Amino acid sequence: MAEPSRIPARDGVRADARRNRERILTAARAVFAERGIDAPMATVARRAGVGVATLYRHFPTRDALVRGAYAHQVETCSRALTDALADPDPWRGFRHLVETVCALHREERGFPAAFLAAFPESTSEHGHRAEQDLKALVRRAQAAGALRPDFHPSDIAVVLLAHCGLVAALPDDAAASRRLVAYLLQSFRADAATAPLPLPSGLTLPGLLTAVGDPGRRPPA
Fold first, then answer.
1. What Cα–Cα distance (Å) separates residue 32 from each residue in 113, 132, 137?
2. What pLDDT does 10 receive?
3. How far is 110 from 9, CA to CA, in rounded Å?
4. Has keyword DNA-binding (predicted)?
5. Residue 16 confidence (pLDDT) above 60
6. Is 221 inside any structural domain?
7. What is the mean pLDDT of residues 21-42?
8. CA 155, CA 120: separation in Å to the nearest integer?
9. DSSP state letters, 6-41
């Protein structure tokens, strides 16, 4: 009769551990967005309302915490790369990948630093495979005559750095984000001189100057 009485306790412990883990991940995303992925682990623990020992029990290293915090975004990027390779139109696949990654940057402000920290090389099998898949996608788009022949896979990092800068200055301006991505994609096309830019106008000039002059201020409505 003693055994059944212990089952709820074990279930309770597991449920409590799951709740702690989710609190830690939620806190990590908030802290990383505010202070970057190098923020002290103790800060994450305090935000989560748990002890530092509890945090390290779930995530023994900073890398494990960062990977856990952005597991969904990484999986989304992985699926986007798989879909891009499967697309019969190499340029459409390439464009979809870039747009997806930049959209994730816009939606989760701590993710860009985590993504760039792991780009373009990784010692993991998954990272190596992703790097090879990206190179294959670039070669396909170039062979199709859509992507300029001097484009290098590492140029993706240039796109991400430029986009990260815009998102940091204008975190709430999705239109400006999409427009920048469209301009960058257009510049990568083999027919860049004639490719249209199918997007609405972005910021007004006063709003842009306000953001550039003081990144902490929002442009006027």
1. 9, 29, 31
2. 54
3. 36
4. yes
5. yes
6. no
7. 90
8. 10
9. HHHHHHHHHHHHHHHHHHHHHHHHHHHHHH-TTS-H
How many structural domains does the chain have? 2
219 assigned to some structural domain: no
Encoded amino acid at 183, one letter: Y
Report the candidate in 179, 170, 180, 177 with the shortest Cα–Cα distance to residue 218.
170
Residue 13 has pLDDT above 60, yes or no: no
What is the extent of the structural domain holding 7? 2-66
Handedness of CA 6, 11, 12, 17 (dihedral sign): positive
Burial (CB < 10 A; 0-12, 13-18, 19+), residue 79, is exposed
Residues 45 and 24 sit within 8 Å (Cβ to Cβ): yes
Confidence at 7, pLDDT banded by 50, 70, 90:
very low
- pLDDT category of residue 27 using cuts at 50, 70 and 90: very high
Which is nearest to 111 in space by CA: 80, 81, 82, 76?
76
Residue 218 lies in a domain: no
Both tokens of residue 77? 């990027």
Q: Which pTM was predicted?
A: 0.71
Residue type, 92: R
> Residues 60, 75: one domain?
no
Evaluate if residue 126 carries a pLDDT over 70.
no
Helix (H, G, I), strand (E, B) or coil at 125: helix
Percent residues over pLDDT 70 in the chain = 76
For 17, 107, 121, 142, the CA distances from 89, given in Å and listed in that order, are 46, 27, 26, 12
Residues in the chain: 221
Do 54 and 77 sit in the same domain of this protein?
no
Which residue is listed with tokens 């953001």? 211
